[in-house]
Design a protein that fits this description.
The chain has 217 residues and is an all-alpha fold. The chain has a single domain, classed as Up-down Bundle (Heme Oxygenase, Chain A), CATH 1.20.910. The chain is globular, with a radius of gyration of 17 Å. Bound molecules: the ligand Cc1ncc(C[n+]2csc(CCO)c2C)c(N)n1.
């Protein structure tokens, strides 16, 4: 069984929790509070900025030029998405600035940056994988389950359900599987741990937006 299948199974309970989260169910039926979505988009702009830096760090640390080039492209993709967010959703939702990161986003981005900078490269790759893979699965799920009719969040939904995005995700999975194939059982277990941890942060990121999470003090 490829590493990615084991990792997905390990994170499956978290993924099920994500699908049942009210942020997702309400996004899907269009009833999500506009302020929660605004909060999410602003936090996501901050997230994408940090995420692209994490990908660029992995590119710099990769052992071969093919992997390096792929992660440079991933990093570019994240910047392009971030700029598109600014251009469309920020204007549409009248968001002036992204503001400061909330606790969950802060925790998630700093985890990714620390893994990308300091951890073994396989761990770093496994830590960024849920960002791709969970969004693909959630995007497809929403797209399939959605009732037809107008949904104010349709353009967001369409971003992650497309075939082009699916190919990108396959590449990210393949790079992790190639790393894992050369790793010891212990290193593979560490990679799985990173994948599960980042999946947890994906749930927390949505939950944070749903609660419009603030710093306690
Ligand atoms: C919290 C959070 N997690 C994942 C994504 C999805 N995502 C962001 S960049 C990228 C790859 C390159 O475009 C993907 C799939 C998101 N937007 N926000």
């Amino acid at each position: 069984m490829p590493w990615s299948e084991q990792a997905w199974q390990a994170a499956a309970p978290i993924y099920q929790n994500i699908l049942q989260h009210p942020f997702i169910t309400e996004l899907m039926n269009g009833s999500l509070d506009k302020d929660c979505f605004r909060f999410y988009i602003a936090q996501d702009a901050l997230y994408l900025g940090a995420f692209s830096r994490a990908l660029a760090l992995i590119a710099a640390r990769a052992g071969d030029t093919d992997t390096s080039l792929q992660f440079i492209r991933f990093a570019e993709g994240a910047i392009v998405v971030e700029q598109a967010l600014h251009a469309s959703f920020f204007r549409e939702l009248a968001i002036e600035t992204a503001g400061a990161p909330a606790p969950a986003g802060h925790h998630y981005t700093n985890y990714l940056l620390a893994q990308a900078a300091l951890a073994p490269i396989g761990n770093a790759m496994a830590a960024v994988l849920p960002c791709f893979w969970i969004y693909k699965q959630v995007g497809d799920y929403i797209y399939q389950q959605q009732q037809k009719g107008s949904n104010p969040y349709q353009s967001w939904i369409d971003t992650y359900a497309g075939e082009e995005f699916g190919l990108l995700v396959q590449k990210a999975i393949a790079h992790c599987d190639a790393m894992a194939a050369q790793a010891t059982a212990e290193q593979q277990a560490q990679m799985t741990g990173c994948f599960v941890q980042a999946s947890r942060f994906e749930w927390m990121f949505w939950d944070s937006a749903y609660r419009q999470e603030q710093w306690p003090v």
